[in-house]
Design goal:
The protein is α/β, with parallel strands linked by helices. The protein contains nine helices and seven strands, in the order βαβαβαβααβαβαβαα. It binds zinc ion (ZN) (2 copies).
Length: about 260
């Protein structure tokens, strides 16, 4: 029984020392820990402090190709995109899909929204909610709809650390995650969801992925919080896509469909 992949890792391309290691170091760490697949998923483009720059993506791809030559392990290119508005916009444009093997999405602070109104009413508002440990019903609804719209509008593979720093109605988000085949992450270092909320996702038929969210190479594959939750709640192996198995992500599925 083991996790075979880690689909959420950051590198130096998450700027300003936010991510600590190189792509080669993350890949080496994954290989040494016996993983068969790793994704490099730096913060999305609208995170002006920490995000990877769109113009760096060709270099990221090159680094990935080099790392693949050094270690016999599969490496995917992704980003952890940001939810940037209450309408469900995320910081991905159509042409990004050509580059990305996998798309993660979560809510993060310090992101540039689509308008001043959204910057205040969505991004800043959620920062205040987090600060004061209180999210109004109205804000929660807004956040819930943002996630729902994002999953319907974009080819998102994984929702990262759901309910962390952006409170939602987990049941409503889970219904649409199931409908759109979007995986719910059990994050290795910050679980935004309560046990009850994780069970709600499970009962609605959602699939999970357990990731490290490593910001340094030594943490790659360290998924203890997510794993503990899965064990504690006795989630069956087959609902965790990277447990004893490797999933197929949406781009790959589309490519297969097209070629058959
Ligand atoms: Zn994140
Ligand atoms: Zn992350």
């Amino acid at each position: 029984m083991a996790l075979l992949a880690d689909y959420h890792t950051h590198t130096k391309y998450s700027r300003n020392h936010h991510g600590k290691g190189t792509i080669d170091e993350n890949v080496r760490s994954a290989y040494e820990k016996g993983l068969r697949q790793i994704a490099i998923t730096d913060h999305g483009f609208n995170q002006k402090m920490y995000g990877v720059r769109r113009k760096d993506i060709p270099q990221v791809k090159k680094d990935i190709e080099e790392a693949k030559e050094h270690y016999p392990i599969d490496v995917l290119l992704g980003v952890e995109a940001n939810l940037i508005s209450s309408k469900g916009d995320i910081d991905i444009i159509d042409s990004d899909y050509d580059d990305l093997d996998i798309l993660l999405c979560g809510f993060h602070r310090l992101v540039k929204s689509t308008s001043a109104r959204e910057q205040f009413g969505f991004v800043l508002k959620n920062i205040f909610c987090e600060l004061f440990h209180h999210t109004s019903k109205k804000q929660r609804e807004k956040n819930t709809n943002a996630y729902i719209n994002a999953m319907r509008k974009y080819r998102i593979d994984i929702i990262t650390h759901l309910n962390h720093a952006c409170k939602v109605d987990v049941e409503k988000v889970a219904r649409v995650a199931k409908e759109t085949n979007t995986l719910i992450e059990l994050n290795g270092k910050r679980l935004g969801m309560s046990d009850e909320e994780i069970m709600t996702c499970y009962k609605l038929g959602c699939k999970f992925v357990i990731n490290s969210d490593a910001h340094s190479p030594n943490r790659v594959g360290d998924c203890h919080l997510g794993l503990q939750a899965a064990l504690r709640l006795r989630l069956p192996d087959n609902v965790i896509v990277n447990y004893n198995d490797l999933p197929t992500f949406k781009k790959q599925k589309e490519q297969k469909k097209r070629s058959s």
